[in-house]
Amino acid sequence: MPSTLPDEPDTLTPAQALDGAVEHQTMLFDRRRTTPSAARSFVAATLTQWGRTERLDDIQLCTSELATNAVLHGAPAGGQVLVRVELHATLLRIEVHDGGKGRPEKQEARDTADDGRGLLLVSAVADHWGVEERQGPGKCVWAAFHRRAVPAC
Length: 153
Hints:
Elements: E1 23-30, H1 35-49, H2 56-74, E2 80-87, E3 91-98, H3 118-125, E4 128-133, E5 139-146
Antiparallel strand pairs: 1-2, 2-3, 3-5, 4-5
Helix pairs in contact: 1-2, 2-3
């Protein structure tokens, strides 16, 4: 877990740069209220299949928050949300792509608000997170988690 909460999305240092995915899995979801739950289940099933369930709760929380943001604020009506899981030598990365405009920003939620804490949670739980432009419309919002080189037994 990170020791500080960044105000903006962070970037990985060159030493932490993505080194080519060892494994990856992608799934496309229609923009629906059930998408965050389905995305969470997809990520959990993928990581279980790979034998990489360390930090599964943290990863599922971030997946749910990123997918929720994509459904509520990113994907246009009738659009889709793409979720990608990438396993790298030193990182596990979750990406959520949508076709919407705008760039998500972490914000402090009012004490009485029922929402507005998604990226605050992601920044607190993930080791890194960020936003990238895509070729074509939309964006990719991602969260990365450091991982051990040897699978947990």
